Amino acid sequence: MAVERTLSIIKPDATRRNLTGKINAVFEDNGLRIVGQKRVQLSEAQAGAFYAVHKERPFYGELVSFMISGPVVLQVLEGENAVAKNREVMGATDPKKAEPQTIRAQFAESIEANSVHGSDSAENAANEIRFFFAETEILP
Ligand code: ATP
Ligand code: MG
Prior knowledge:
The chain has one domain: Nucleoside diphosphate kinase-like domain (Alpha-Beta Plaits, 2-Layer Sandwich). The chain is α+β, with helices and mostly antiparallel strands. The chain starts with a strand and ends in an 8-residue tail after the last helix. The chain has 7 helices and 4 strands, in the order βααβααβααβα. Strands 2-3-1-4 form a 4-stranded antiparallel sheet. The longest helix is centred in the C-terminal third of the chain and has 11 residues, at about 120-130. The structure holds adenosine-5'-triphosphate (ATP) and magnesium ion (MG). Major role in the synthesis of nucleoside triphosphates other than ATP. The ATP gamma phosphate is transferred to the NDP beta phosphate via a ping-pong mechanism, using a phosphorylated active-site intermediate.
């Protein structure tokens, strides 16, 4: 197993409900280290570009509006198999289908307002980290 990094976003539904610490505890309890973190208000252009892969999906416009509806917490998580590990800890996109104890099962409000984002491959993780973080903002 290799030490990897992945991009995580605590989404506006979770920052609004003051859940940053509870979600971070799940990451840390599962062996993921938060090696970069900042709370920001995304612009429409940033959110639109970040989710550009979903541009043709019917929920794209609403997803972008949701992602700019309040602050998000951008994070770089590091650990053994961090990309897959984080996806496991997050749970399924639809919280109704997420395994118990996952972040989405515990905290998500809906399939859209599902509390967290996590990169879905090592290649996307590298691109997403570069999109939001300077190397000097990542401190292992
Ligand atoms: P993320 O990319 O945020 O980590 P994911 O990889 O589990 O989530 P994707 O299929 O990439 O899911 O969808 C990106 C995001 O779009 C979801 O997390 C969710 O916020 C929103 N989304 C996905 N499917 C739907 C849907 N059917 N209706 C509304 N919003 C959706
Ligand atoms: Mg995704």
